[in-house]
Amino acid sequence: MRLLLVEDDVQLGRATQTGLEQQGHAVDWVRDGLTAQTAIEDGDYAAVLLDLGLPRQDGLEVLRIIRRHGFTNPVLIITSRDEIEDRVLGLDTGADDFIVKPFDLQELGARLRAAARRSTGRAQTLITHDTLQVDPAARSARLAGTLVALTGRELSLLIHLLERRGRVLSRQQLQESLYDWDSDIESNAIEVHVHNLRRKLGKELVRTVHGQGYTIDPPRPLHTVDP
Ligand code: CA
To answer: Among 47, 54, 86, 168, which one is least packed by beta carbons within 10 Å?
Structure first.
């Protein structure tokens, strides 16, 4: 997932960014409320991790503004133990969940996956598509029961497309979902990942929509009855 981390504590911010990147996410990190607001309005983040006590603009105010401007993806607020009122206010202002400092990175990862799952309307933890089964938590994919070796980016791309089955996503949109600001991206990076996914998982899985981008079609019904 492409994530925005908003945290002014440098040590905590760095550790969180590194930890989430190790879990396969692309993480942009900003340290004040105004920059966060601009980044969210310009970017395409699957989720935002938002500290409340921030310089230049308070986290709650950022939350209020981005919700008013139509950002509907999950927002998790980062709070301290003594900020119970803020937590309540945060949830009522449109946050999806909160995590209390100091937090465990594995728990944070699980909460982000749960929030992403809910926001894409999926209750199950596994994503199933025909004989393909993807486990976003274990970061693994099986085809007809057999484990398929995918790179982190291939897996992230696959999950992103599967969660948006039936929608055509442009190369630019896919690139933004996979890479943070600091990444050096080859211009054909997405084509290469798609090529590898087809090679490993079958060439029909990801469909090219000429001039528009790529899509994974919703699975066909298991039984079709001939008229
Ligand atoms: Ca802070």
So the answer is: 168
Looking at the chain, which residues constitute the CATH 3.40.50.2300 domain(s)? Answer: 2-120
Q: Under DSSP, is residue 179 helix (H, G, I), strand (E, B) or coil?
A: coil
**In the predicted model, what is the mean pLDDT of residues 39-68?**
94
Compute the distance from residue 23 Cα to the ligand 1 centre, in Å: 23
My answer on whether omega of the bond before 102 falls inside 30° of 0, hence cis, is yes
Give the CA dihedral 57, 181, 141, 173, nearest 10 degrees: 90
Distance 166 CA to ligand 1 centre (A): 40
The model's pLDDT over 54-80, given as tens digits with 9 standing for 90+, comes to: 999 999 999 999 999 999 999 999 988
CA of 7 to the centre of ligand 1 (A): 6
The rounded distance, in Å, linking the Cα atoms of 130 and 31 is: 43
The CATH class, in words, for 127-215 is mainly alpha
How far, in Å, from the CA of 93 to the mean position of ligand 1? 18
Task: Provide CATH 1.10.10.10 ranges for the chain.
Answer: 127-215
Domain 2-120 has CATH 2.40.110.10: no
For residue 209, the CA-to-ligand 1 centroid distance in Å is 44
Q: From ligand 1's centre to the CA of 71, what distance in Å? A: 22
Task: Please write the tens of the pLDDT for every residue from 158-213.
Answer: 999 999 999 999 999 999 999 888 888 888 999 999 999 999 999 999 999 999 99
